[in-house]
C-alpha cells in the first residue's frame, strides 16, 4: 500500500471554507471516511483505508456477524446508524451493501438529508455503475463505483490478499485522479469500466469465480460418489494447473475428451452421471457443448472430428428436455420413476 500522506493543517472556518464544500476532496490529503455495510467487503476495505492513513470515523452494521467484523477489523470505530455514518463521513462514504439493496440505501440517505455537496459517495458493487447513485448526485455528492475483483472472508487474512488486485472503477472524469489514488492506497490497480459495461464486467467475474466454486464442488461430489475419500487432494494439483494454463494459454490449454472429440467417452460420462447424479447432467452438457465450440473455433478440434461428439450432446440434451430415456443410455429422474412403476 502507498505510504500515508501527511495531513494538511486544518483550514480556517468561514465563507472560503463553505465555498469549497461542493468540490470533491483532493488527492493530496487524508480522508475522513464512513462505511455503511460491515460485511466482508466493507469491513476489509475500511481496515485497508485505515492502514493507508485515512480516518474511518464511523461504520454501520446491524447483524451479529457485522458487529464481530467491526470489532476485529475496525476496532475503536464507533458503530452508528446509516444516516449518522453518512453525516460523519465528510470526505468519503463507502457503501458496501448487497446489489439489490443499494438503490434503496442511496435514496434513503438522500431523502434523510444525510449527504452533502462535494462528499464522495462510493459503492463497491460490481453490477452497478453511477446511475444507482443518482439521488446522491442530485444533492451535490460525487458518485464513484469502486469494485474489488476479489473474494473476501471478512477476516484479517483478506488484507494480505489486496495487494495487486484489480478494481473495476467507474467515475466522472474529474474524479478519476481521486479514484486512482484510493485504489493505489488499497494496494490495487484500477480497471476503468464504462457505465454501460458494468453488467457485462460483473457477469464475467461471477461466471469465472462464483461458478468456479460450484464446478469444483460438483467435481468433488462426483469423486465422492466414485469412492474417493479425499477429493480435494485429487483435484487441487489438477485444478491449479488447469487454471494457470488457461490464464496463460487461453483455449490452447484445453485438454480432455471433448477437445479430442471422444464421443464414446463423453457418452459413458453422461450415462453414469444420469444414473448417479442426474442433477449434474444439464451443467455437464452445457459446459461440454461450450467447450466443443471453443475447441473448434481455436482449431484444436476439427469440425469433422466433432460430429459424433456433437450428436451425443444433442441427443442427450433432447432427452433431458423431453424427460424421457433418450440419448446415450440417459435415464432421467422421470424415466427412472416410470421404469420402476
Give the arrangement of secondary structure elements.
Blueprint: H1 15-19, E1 32-36, H2 40-51, E2 55-60, H3 64-73, H4 82-88, E3 92-95, H5 99-111, E4 120-123, H6 134-138, E5 142-148, H7 157-161, E6 166-170, H8 176-185, E7 189-192, H9 198-225, H10 231-249, H11 257-260, H12 263-276, H13 281-297, H14 303-322, H15 333-340
Parallel strand pairs: 1-2, 1-3, 3-4, 4-5, 6-7
Antiparallel strand pairs: 5-6
Question: How can the largest sheet be summarized?
Answer: 7 strands, mixed
Query: What class, by secondary structure content?
Result: alpha/beta
- Spatial sequence of strands, sheet with the most strands: 2-1-3-4-5-6-7
Q: How confident overall, as mean pLDDT? A: 89
Overall number of strands: 7
N-to-C SSE string, H for helix and E for strand = HEHEHHEHEHEHEHEHHHHHHH
Give the helix tally.
Answer: 15
The CATH H-level superfamily of the largest domain is NAD(P)-binding Rossmann-like Domain
CATH topology of the largest domain: Rossmann fold
What fraction of the residues are assigned to beta strands by DSSP? 5-15%
CATH class of the largest domain: Alpha Beta
CATH architecture of the largest domain: 3-Layer(aba) Sandwich
- Roughly how many Å is the radius of gyration? 26 Å
- Indicate how many domains the architecture comprises: 2
Approximate helicity band: 40-55%
Distance between termini? 66 Å
Q: What would the principal axes of the Cα set say about the shape?
A: elongated
The residue ranges in which pLDDT falls below 50 over 5 or more consecutive positions are 1-21, 325-341
Amino acid at each position: 500500500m502507498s505510504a500515508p500522506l501527511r495531513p494538511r493543517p486544518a483550514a480556517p472556518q468561514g465563507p472560503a471554507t463553505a465555498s469549497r464544500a461542493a468540490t470533491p476532496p483532493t488527492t493530496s490529503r487524508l480522508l475522513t471516511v464512513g462505511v455503511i455495510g460491515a460485511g466482508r467487503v466493507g469491513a476489509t476495505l475500511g481496515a485497508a483505508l485505515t492502514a493507508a492513513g485515512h480516518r474511518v470515523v464511523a461504520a454501520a452494521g446491524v447483524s451479529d456477524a457485522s458487529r464481530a467484523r467491526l470489532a476485529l477489523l475496525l476496532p475503536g470505530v464507533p458503530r452508528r446508524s446509516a444516516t449518522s455514518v453518512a453525516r460523519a463521513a465528510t470526505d468519503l462514504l463507502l457503501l458496501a451493501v448487497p446489489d439489490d439493496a443499494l438503490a434503496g440505501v442511496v435514496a434513503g440517505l438522500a431523502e434523510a438529508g444525510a449527504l452533502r455537496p462535494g462528499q464522495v459517495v462510493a459503492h463497491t458493487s460490481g453490477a452497478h455503475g453511477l446511475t444507482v447513485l443518482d439521488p446522491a448526485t442530485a444533492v451535490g455528492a460525487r458518485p464513484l463505483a469502486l469494485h474489488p475483483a476479489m473474494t473476501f472472508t471478512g477476516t484479517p487474512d483478506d488484507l494480505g490478499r489486496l495487494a495487486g488486485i484489480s478494481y473495476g472503477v467507474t467515475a466522472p472524469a474529474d474524479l478519476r485522479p481521486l479514484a486512482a489514488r484510493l485504489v493505489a492506497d488499497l494496494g490495487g490497480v484500477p480497471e476503468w469500466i464504462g457505465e454501460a459495461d458494468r453488467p457485462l464486467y460483473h457477469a464475467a467475474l461471477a461466471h469465472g469465480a462464483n461458478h468456479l466454486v460450484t464446478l469444483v464442488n460438483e467435481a468433488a461430489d462426483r469423486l465422492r460418489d466414485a469412492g474417493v475419500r479425499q477429493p480435494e487432494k485429487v483435484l487441487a494439483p489438477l485444478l491449479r494447473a488447469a487454471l494457470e494454463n488457461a490464464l496463460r494459454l487461453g483455449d490452447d490449454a484445453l485438454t480432455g475428451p471433448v477437445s479430442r472429440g471422444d464421443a464414446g467417452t463423453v457418452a459413458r460420462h453422461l450415462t453414469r452421471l444420469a444414473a448417479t447424479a442426474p442433477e449434474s447432467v444439464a451443467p455437464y452438457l452445457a459446459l461440454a457443448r461450450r467447450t466443443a465450440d471453443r475447441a473448434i473455433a481455436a482449431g484444436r478440434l476439427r469440425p469433422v472430428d466433432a460430429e459424433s461428439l456433437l450428436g451425443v450432446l444433442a441427443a442427450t440434451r433432447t432427452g433431458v428436455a423431453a424427460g424421457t430415456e433418450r440419448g446415450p443410455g440417459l435415464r432421467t429422474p422421470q424415466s427412472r420413476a416410470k421404469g420402476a412403476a
